[in-house]
Amino acid sequence: MINVLIVDDDAMVAELNRRYVAQISGFHCCGTASTLEKRKSLSSTVKITLT
């Protein structure tokens, strides 16, 4: 399983990407972040394979 964290400052684009990743076998969206700071805080609590 590849854990994906979506980072985008546009909430609509992030949601579209989250839905797309959810449809791909072997990929799991483990979260979204709108800023680099949020991405850094999530990476300390979630195992991320791909950002």
From TrEMBL:
PANTHER family: TRANSCRIPTIONAL REGULATORY PROTEIN DCUR-RELATED, TRANSCRIPTIONAL REGULATORY PROTEIN DPIA. The lineage of its organism: Bacteria, Pseudomonadati, Pseudomonadota, Gammaproteobacteria, Enterobacterales. It comes from the Bacteria. One of its GO terms (molecular function) is phosphorelay response regulator activity. The gene is dcuR_1. SUPFAM superfamilies: CheY-like. This is Two-component response regulator.
